[in-house]
Prior knowledge:
Layout: H1 11-34, H2 41-68, H3 76-102, H4 112-129, H5 140-164, H6 171-205
Helix pairs in contact: 1-2, 1-3, 1-4, 2-3, 3-6, 4-5, 4-6, 5-6
Amino acid sequence: xxxxxxxxxxxxxxxxxxxxxxxxxxxxxxxxxxxxxxxxxxxxxxxxxxxxxxxxxxxxxxxxxxxxxxxxxxxxxxxxxxxxxxxxxxxxxxxxxxxxxxxxxxxxxxxxxxxxxxxxxxxxxxxxxxxxxxxxxxxxxxxxxxxxxxxxxxxxxxxxxxxxxxxxxxxxxxxxxxxxxxxxxxxxxxxxxxxxxxxxxxxxxx
Length: 206
């Protein structure tokens, strides 16, 4: 790591960790949605919306700190990218839950549970990685594994699309379910964006 003569604002680390912990909360709500009766989904959606609002608050706090700090722990553009990518994850997860409720989906297609399991694992890894930004230690395995998970998510997504277009579902149902699985895939992509940003930061700081 480069030697620095100037002090660095450390509250960013805590805010990134809080944002990532909130994403774990969102992933657990996605898991809860899988086993929920249709009537219980609206309440889960409300809790997910509250988590998404908490994520927005965390992101705005990071941006406010960024705008008011003369010294930052790493490049300002990387702080902005990392905060934005973390926020994107929560946005996509909340959108997926909301669509399930709005579209009154009775049964999610087989394979969605695998999508959500990948997201839950990526959320855990991301939450574990954020505190390590302080030292830039033990991060390589994190971004390698998240990239592997994103590749796995791509494969699951392709299989889900093939399933949706096999003639079992009517056209309207296909459109509804495809939008849901596409948004879950976007969440997996957003996890990869976070991991790639962390890798960029680590390389610059090495």
